[in-house]
Amino acid sequence: MAGTESRGRAERRSAGELESEVLAALWATERPLTPAEIQAEVDGALAYNTVHTILKRLYDKGLVLRDAAGRRGAYRPAKNAAQLTAEAMHEALDRGPDPIAALQQFVTGLSPEEERALRELLAGGGA
Amino acid sequence: MIFDVYGPLVLSLLLALVGPVIARRVAPALAAPVLASAAVLTATATTWSLVLLAAALLGDAPPVIREAREAGRPVMDPVPEVIGLGASAALLVVAVRLHRAVRAERSTRRVLRRLCAGQPADTELIVAASAVPQAFAIPGRPGRILVTSAMLSALAPAERRVLLAHERAHLTYRHGALVTAVTLAAAANPLLRPVRAAVAFLVERWADERAAALVGDRRATARALARAALTAGRARRACALGFTDRAVTRRIAALHTTPPPRLWTAAAAVLALGTLPALLAADATGDLMGLLSGALS
Fold it and tell me: pTM here?
């Protein structure tokens, strides 16, 4: 029952959203991932074929590479565009706090006491 | 006329006091647009009031007075000259502040466009290969989400889903436009700065609530926020940016309670509070036109 529910949720996500999640999963780790591993990372309820389709699309866009040296069928993220983006971002950050600080950042700074509280939350919260 | 022109100033103080309270009590998806609209209306009204006060100086212009005397009408001075001059100066300050705010906004847009350069057109997620943990939404068509590799590798799969859902909510509900509007309002009327801060906080809360609804777990959403904040905090201390407004802690605390209700009455009251200055300013405009046309005809 829970399985079909989460499957329903997975299917409601658009192709673009799933692309983001697959790409995020590939960037989150150092090692190349096989479609099966990606499927487990992103959402176990996602159809294996869907993962393949998404990987193919990301590959066509040049955002992921097939890992020729390592395991067959594994993918890793392409670094070129990401490095250019990082350079542009660092340049913006160096120039002053203004441009990036004006954005809605996911998180802002913490005081030491807040940091302690959050650590406790993560340690005590469990899964 | 007198109350009509000074009323908007008093009312903007009231809005600045009410804003933070509404931000705590009302569902963010309702409170954010309502506060932003009220702020924009109020800022427009206060700026227009300054225009009216400055324009009233025209009533003191020698030709106007001479004509009025010749026509045998009493010369009415609705606004002391000092106040008229003060309003003109204030208007100048408002113009400069607005100009600066628009320029800052433009420069941010330019930076953001550069971050998207070299990325495929139809891709939502842009990854920056950077050791600085960072994540933000880039409004536009299409809207994008920029996350650094450092942030992605610090989060668990479920937490990454929260992050993406949060940033996606910013894009879907056009939070960027809302914050820009209220930023310009606060530039035109500095009394509204607390409202700007309230709206900036509310759009984060709004995105948190959307993410929590999508992943179906408020506590998991809170944990994702905590992990991201700790990751970003570590890196940021290194660049000596000790600033904190306790925003993350407040957002996490809010996720540990039930979502705030959609208090329509409170929202309506805030909207009324925003509309009132506009009505007063409109009324004052009528008064001034009557005054000037009476003197000039």
Answer: 0.87
